Amino acid sequence: MGIDVYLRWNVQTQGELAAQEEAYMALDGGSVGYLREWYTGGLYLMKILCREAFESGSRRATIPAAVLRGRLTSVTEPARGLDYGHHIADVVAKELEEGGAAVRRPGFPRTDPMNVEEAVAARYADQPELLQAVLKSRRDFVALAENKERGTGLPCTIVLA
Description:
Elements: E1 2-8, H1 14-22, E2 34-38, H2 45-49, H3 51-55, E3 60-62, H4 65-73, E4 77-78, H5 84-98, E5 113-114, H6 116-123, H7 128-152, E6 157-160
Antiparallel strand pairs: 1-2, 1-6, 3-6, 4-5
Helix pairs in contact: 4-7, 6-7
């Protein structure tokens, strides 16, 4: 399971939409406006890059390309490492404690401020080839958002699926 992220822009063609669908689950989909991140219990890179889409009830947000570029390369905010699995662990620990059990709560992932490129490096440090592929895909995604915004005059919309 994972997080699928699609870039949508004004006057997107059927061919461009099809290219995104063909990139489904690929590591190199950034150049067509598709990113995939597997649920691993670690740092979620997409929560840094497109925070507003995660916080939106519609799972979509229009984000200017300059904001995406800044998050890619500049330290902008905490990595927000908590995820659903940690929430479940916390709920179980709380129930055990209420029942009188002594519980040692698990440590949660790092939440130091970092940019997307730093988060990629931290997450894939032990997999250098994968690290380079993921970095390239994120960079391509942001470059496409910049190109489409320049071409249409409107920022792109990020859609989570």
